[in-house]
Amino acid sequence: MEISKVTLEIFSKLEQQWLSQRESSKKTRILSIDGGGTTGIPSGAALIHLEDQIQAKTGNSGSRIIDFFDIIAGTGIGALLAAMLNADDGNGRPRFTAREAVEFISDRNSELFKVKNVGVVHRRRMFSGKSMEKVLKEALTRDDGKVLTLKDTCKPLIVPCYDLNSSAPFVFSRADASQSASYNFDLWKVCRATSSDPSMLKPFHLTSVDGKTSCFAVDGGLVMNNPSAAVVTHVLHNKRDFPSLTGVEDLLVLSLGNGPLSNSPHPKVSGSGHCLNQCVVGIALDGVSETVDQILGNAFCWNHADYVRIQANGYLNGGVGQTVSMEKLLNERGVETLPFGGKRLMTETNGQRIETFVQRLVGSSLPPSPCKNTTVSQHVDGR
Length: 383
Known about the structure:
Blueprint: H1 2-26, E1 28-33, H2 41-58, E2 71-74, H3 77-86, H4 98-107, H5 109-112, E3 115-118, E4 124-127, H6 129-139, E5 157-163, E6 168-173, H7 174-179, H8 187-194, E7 204-207, E8 214-218, H9 221-224, H10 228-237, E9 251-256, H11 277-299, E10 307-310, H12 322-331, E11 333-337, E12 343-349, H13 350-363
Parallel strand pairs: 1-2, 1-9, 2-5, 9-10
Antiparallel strand pairs: 3-4, 5-6, 5-8, 7-8, 11-12
Helix pairs in contact: 2-4, 2-12, 2-13, 3-8, 6-8
């Protein structure tokens, strides 16, 4: 009788362990990278640390971020990072490591965001679209000369912009690109579209590879600076690529911010007590990202460990160098959105939170190698 009890306990523990591993392994893993700024230092630091930790935990220096995520999304500078980490080198492997992608953006930053003076009477400073496009083409053209498109990614990709033609958000996705050439766009054009800050760049006109779909794009950060909600919604409704999902309990989400846009030492209120215009703009831009974070925090309130948001807390205003900034981001204590309002300062640093996330990411079993040749069925509406 005692042996039966011991045996029952052993089998019970084995069953719980098996169920735990099964639960962890079936989760769809999402990586989302915010727009904001021109350097991408906060998200870049997080990505480098993320890939370093993946390699350390797996003992494989060839492991890449995209090996451990099922879909990646990005806006603005975050979209460029997402595309570079995801772009297929022709052999089913990403063209860039995290460190290579971040260093490329850092080294070519003055060309990506080259400032020029425009206008005759009313002179103003703008970014050079031609200079940006040259760098984007270089990053997202394969060594054999092939210009990469949305279909040429290791895993599904989501990138938002705002279309002036339809006066609505326009979301580029590999799912739509796999359906039809009418929704397949060159990757460099997608990154150019989502980076078209109307205060610094002209709207960007782009067409699909077959010329049938067009978009007159401005900055995706105006409507989806934090693309986490867009990619979560996409995954939950994309039954072709993610047929087994039923709800957020099946998701594991890592969202990387690029620091608050409105965190400024300048006064936010005038002497008369009114909010200053620049303050209102900043609040509106940051409000989009913070609202998304709040919504997802609520959605994951019963399994909050499945949603991790890494965000800088405004240290960049000090004008410190890139190396110091990256170290500061990882050493800052993390901030967590509380269910139904408010935030709390955590005991863990951002670096430690990434390490904990990686432990869950790779803890159960190694995922398959990246593969873009998924079976695709036709949409009901033909898209």
